[in-house]
Structures are given as C-alpha cells and as structure tokens.
Design a protein that fits this description.
The chain has 146 residues and is α+β, with helices and mostly antiparallel strands. The chain is 37% helix and 33% strand. Strands 1, 2, 3, 4 and 5 form a five-stranded antiparallel beta sheet that branches. The longest helix has 23 residues. The chain is rod-shaped and about 90 Å long. The termini are far apart.
C-alpha cells in the first residue's frame, strides 16, 4: 500500500524576519515571512517541490499565520517615535500662525517635551520654524501606516 498526495509546507523559503504588530497577540512580536510551497508527498513526507502558493507571515509567539499585508500596520515602537515628530510639526505650524511670544514658545517647548522629546530646546524649535511651512506640516498630513 503506497500513500501519496499533495500538501503545502512553510518550512522553506524564508523571505524576512523582524517585528510586527500581531493582530492575534495584540502586541509587537517577532515574525517570519515565508513562501508557502506545495509538495508531492509520499507517506506524508514531502518529496518533490511543486509550485509556490503564496506568502505568509507567522507570529513566533502565537504561531498564527497572516497575509503579508499585516506588515503594513505600524508597531507600537514606530507609533511612539512618531508622536514627538508630529508634536514638533504641530508646534511649528501653530507658532507660525499665532506668533512667537515668550509664552507661546514656552508652551510649545513644554508640549513637545511632554510628547517624549526630552532634549527639545529653543535651538531645535528655531530650526523647525526655519523650515518651509510645507515641510513642517508634512508629518501632520502623513498617515501612521506610511
């Protein structure tokens, strides 16, 4: 009696490794991005590789497989680093519109520092104000998924 068939395996074709926001675990986790491949099997052992059937991203923690589109979602580390940049841009846009009084500058510095940029000072603020208005507003217009 000979048992043969077709099965899909994910153990070959490593494309990338990294960290992503796992929809199942709900946190930043390590992943493996792999190619799924169909094999001819003999006695349930993969013998002959056939065609590629797609790509998958597998969470190393919960072992759930996802479509590679899940890698487009930002991780919490990426979101945390974008908050100070966005606050700097907002502060520059508001100061340009409302003027640069001592009170306004102090409030802008306090707001940016509170967002996580502890070393932000007047020199940084002046550099942000010297940028073209379109460049300062660009981080505010970006989606967090880009």
């Amino acid at each position: 009696m000979i048992i043969f068939g077709l099965s899909v395996f994910y153990f070959m074709g490593l494309i990338a490794k990294g960290r992503f926001a796992c929809p199942n675990c709900g946190g930043d986790r390590d992943y493996e991005h792999r190619t799924a491949r169909r094999f001819f099997t003999l006695f349930f052992i993969p013998v002959i590789p056939l065609d590629k059937v797609g790509e998958v991203v597998r969470c190393q923690t919960c072992r759930v497989r996802f479509d590679p589109a899940v890698l487009a979602a930002p991780t919490s580390a990426q979101l945390a680093s974008s908050l100070p940049a966005g606050m700097r841009a907002v502060a520059a846009v508001i100061l340009r519109a409302g003027g640069t009084s001592e009170a306004a500058i102090g409030a802008a510095l306090a707001a940016v520092r509170a967002s996580g940029a502890q070393g932000y000072d007047v020199a940084h603020l002046q550099a942000d104000l010297n940028q073209p208005a379109d460049a300062a507003a660009e981080p505010c217009a970006r989606s967090p998924h880009t």
